[in-house]
What we know:
single chain, 32 strands
Amino acid sequence: MNKNVAFVAPLPPPVHGFSNICAAMAGLLAARTKVRVFNRAPRSDNRLSSRLRPWANLIGNGFWCLTTRNATLYVGLSGGRGQWMDLLYVLAARVCGHRMFVHHHSFAYIIAPSFVNRLLFSIVRRETHVVLSRHMREELIRIYRLDPAKVRVVSNAAFLAPVEENLHVAEAESPVRLGFLSAVSFEKGIGEFFSVLAELKRAGIPYVGRVAGPLNPAIRQQFETLLRSSSDVTYLGPIYDQAKTAFYRDLDILLFPTDYANEAEPLVIHEAMRSGVHVIACDRGAISEMLTHGAGIVCAKASFVATASVQIGAFSANASALQHARHLSLLQARRLRDLSRVELETLVEEIAGSPVGGREAAKPSVRGMAAAVLGAACVLGLCDKASADVANHDTLEKATLPVDDKLAQGGNTLSFYVADQLAYDNNLYRLPSEADVFTVVGIGASRADHINTGSVGMNGLWTLGRQIVTVDLRVDDNRFARNDDLNNVSSNDSLKWNWALGSALSGQLGANYIRTLGGFYNTFNYQQNIVDVVELFGSLRYAVGPHIALFGGVMSTDVSLSQPALKINDNRRNAVDVGMEYATGASSTLNLDYRHTSADYSQNGVLNGQQFDQDYRDDTVRLTFRDAITEKSQLEALIGYLKRAYPNTVIGAFSGQIWRLSYDWHPTDKTEIVFSGSRDLQADLSAQSDYYVSKAFSIAPTWTPTEKIALALVLTHDEQDFIGVNEFVVSLGNRRDRINSGQANVAYSPFVFSQSRALTFTCSYRIEHRTSNQAGLSYDDNIGKVGVNFKF
Length: 792
């Protein structure tokens, strides 16, 4: 459904960063729904009509609020006294019960909160807030006690066009080209700009300076004096469009020594980086968060002249270093734009709904999709390849990856859920069709069974600065209608601390606990067998520079089986992983890592009536490439070499190539297809002494036709060549199994109250067909599941 939007914000003229972004936002909303604009730009003259316009707009907004249904107020919040007028617009929307979106563009009320700030925020505390950076988000939540779940981070970079490779290289031996683009005033740092030029001149460092922007009339005489006293400096006046493009094209470094109180996320810095211009700026607003990954230098106002002079001198002496720094600025511009564009599209959709005219169905909201997918994952247990973990990374590999910046954007959250699932499995023990269940399993056993699973759980996320702690707990009570000797309580729990120290050090500490009913197929033991798995892990990443990071991790895994006949599989594995990551672009990385794993089994294996040591050592070298090819596709490719050695060199040794390939494609906003393939060494959880080389392929399309419905299909083919280390497997000779499976999943969320409250119904059906070159090991299985999940 289209929504009616009242747009309250300043629009050009005058032209500045705030008004430009507001104009861009108004255009995006107008393309989707009906927008009534109430321009809050300051009057340009003292005519009576100009004086009356703010009050006419205010009255018009009040009438609009009273007469419009399904209405939304969007406010580009003023940074100073203009909030008194914003307050009146907000009060009108509050009285009429309209929802509000408050877009923040200033740090003024973060640095020095005033009475009007606190009064206004008391009214909009539970509304949706849009901020420019993570730091702005944290401060607004802290000072004004906003609801963290309703604060969105959208960088101004999202409003800009895609970044092109347009780095213009100056001629060899040419002087460093310096620029200043802003309102020409001492508050914006024009005095420091000329002071830097004076220092360079004293040091004999050649430069060319250009100044652009409207001149504050109050400092005209002083500015002209500074201009005359400095050599090789040109003042261009206000510039726009092509003139501005030419200005950046002829720059190496932009100096931005601002001390402006309302400074937030200056567009001029985004524009400079997009043109491959390195930036040296004062630490105001979100500037320090913009100029990461080597894109620029940020310092205090007091040290700006000295810092800039030294750095420019270094660049003057090393042209290649300057070109490298400019390239890093270009990469950062692309990174910021790509990451924030998705957030902007989600925000516009949330404010405006579907496009005007109703020709296109409403896109599923992130909230609705998350609830549907979460419900399916909680109740149905969708396989990893059908969800976000498409590459099926192991726990230690996940721990060494950088933390997802979006993880903490929703703020502190705590939710609980209860669920119930009814499943029917027509071949519970995975027996061949000709096998007699009473003979193989025992009197009273049933090949098919109904299983009821009742579940309770919680998901929590807490942030403190850059520290992020997550807790996920789940307990399942599994009851079998016929094979009641298999009744059990299972669990899946996780505790993680994503830690950060300064800007260079980060990592993860955590623990996972899994308790589950072991499978029957490769154990050929049909009694209840509870498998307990405990994982303890830690990792560290050190950012050497904008392109290179070193990482390492350790993990200890304990596996224990309850069935005495299967205790031979009890083991402890300790792994150490070290590697290096190289960022080849704004959204692509190349990783090289080495892992050593030692596995110690509690009991010896048995072969031809003789015991032997099952312990082994793995050594693995891997090269991994990850790239966001476009905004709608991601590629991950891994190739490596694994060597497994046993004390008994005759049995079980393996060495060979491993690989993994995953391609995640979003052809439309409502569809996703994941293609994946891999070759690796695997073992079933309850039979880890019997491992095999797995070559697997899968395709997993998903479709979200509405915000309440999600459908997924997973098709897989797996070829398993066994390398046995116990008497049974070795007696089979060269065993080869082939498994084809398909699973369809449907999730329906009729009620999505919030990000942490939803009711979801789920349904799935799975078919599995296994063939083996060994007699008696082939089977067919069908599993159907229906369930309900309530998250609150």
